[in-house]
Write a structure and sequence with these properties.
Elements: H1 9-19, H2 26-39, E1 48-52, E2 58-62, H3 64-73, E3 77-86, E4 92-101, E5 108-113, H4 114-117, H5 127-144, H6 152-161, H7 187-193
Antiparallel strand pairs: 1-2, 3-4, 4-5
Helix pairs in contact: 3-5
Length: about 230
C-alpha cells in the first residue's frame, strides 16, 4: 500500500498510525490495512480509520466519503435516490434510499427513522444530511453485501461495548476415581466370603408338589434322574 501511494513503508506506517489508528499492535495494524485494501479505501484521506475497542482490538470505521466511494466504484451500481418523509408540523420523520443495480430488476429500498438514529452529537444538528447518510449506508449493505466495516456512530458504540480480550475458560471439575473391588479368581471363594445381607429375611412355609432342585456348585453338570 505504501507503493500505491508513493511513500516509503516506514513513513506510510507512521502517517497512518498518527492519523487513523494510533493504539494498535503490529497485527491489528496489518488487519486494518488488509480491510482498507480489500475495499480499495484510502486511509490517508480518512475514507477508513479505526477506533480502539474496549479490552483490545480495533473497530474499522468508514466515513461517508468512503461509503460513497464503495457504492460508486462498484461495477453493478446503477445509481441511488432518496425520499424524505415529514410530519404535519414539518418535522423530519424518515429517509428512504433506493439503491439500483444493473443486474437487478427492482431496487433495494431501505428506510431509516430519525427517532432511531439521532444522537446528541454536533453533526446531528444537520438532521436531513445525517439521516440521508444513514439510509445510503444501510441500503449499500443490503445491495452490495459490504461487511466488517461500520459508520462512525456504529463504530463508537461497538468500541465502547465490545470486549475482545480472551480469558482462559475455567478448568473442568476433577472427577473422583472410585476403585473397583478386587474380584477373586475362585467362584467358590466368592460365595464363601460374600458379606451377609444386612436386611432381615422372613421365611414362610410354601407348599410345593415339585421335588426340590438338586444342589450343586457353579460349573457342575446337571445330574440325570433314573427310574
Amino acid at each position: 500500500m505504501a507503493t500505491r501511494f508513493g511513500m516509503e513503508p516506514q513513513a506510510f506506517e507512521a502517517t497512518v498510525r498518527a492519523t487513523c489508528i494510533q493504539k494498535a499492535s503490529r497485527e491489528e495494524f496489518a488487519a486494518f490495512l488488509l480491510v482498507a485494501k480489500e475495499y480499495g479505501l484510502n486511509p490517508l484521506t480518512k475514507e477508513i480509520y479505526a477506533f480502539p475497542a474496549k479490552g483490545g482490538g480495533i473497530v474499522p470505521v468508514v466515513s461517508i466519503d468512503g461509503w460513497i466511494n464503495l457504492v460508486n466504484s462498484h461495477k453493478a451500481c446503477d445509481g441511488f435516490e432518496f425520499d424524505m418523509e415529514h410530519g404535519e408540523n414539518g418535522d423530519l420523520i424518515s429517509c428512504t434510499c433506493r439503491m439500483f443495480r444493473k443486474d437487478r430488476g427492482r431496487p433495494v429500498t431501505v428506510t431509516e427513522y430519525l427517532s432511531e438514529c439521532r444522537r446528541g452529537t454536533e453533526p446531528w444538528k444537520m438532521q436531513h444530511r445525517m439521516l440521508r447518510h444513514k439510509a445510503l449506508i444501510q441500503a449499500a449493505r443490503y445491495a452490495f453485501g459490504f461487511s466488517g466495516i461500520y459508520d462512525e456512530d456504529e463504530g463508537e458504540k461497538i468500541a465502547e461495548a465490545i470486549n475482545v480480550s480472551r480469558e482462559e475458560p475455567p478448568a473442568p471439575p476433577a472427577i473422583a476415581q472410585i476403585a473397583a473391588p478386587e474380584k477373586s479368581a475362585d467362584p467358590i471363594e466368592e460365595m464363601i466370603t460374600a458379606p451377609a445381607p444386612t436386611e432381615a429375611v422372613e421365611w414362610s412355609e410354601v407348599e410345593d408338589d415339585e421335588p426340590p432342585a438338586p444342589i450343586g456348585f457353579p460349573g457342575d453338570r446337571p445330574m440325570e434322574r433314573r427310574v
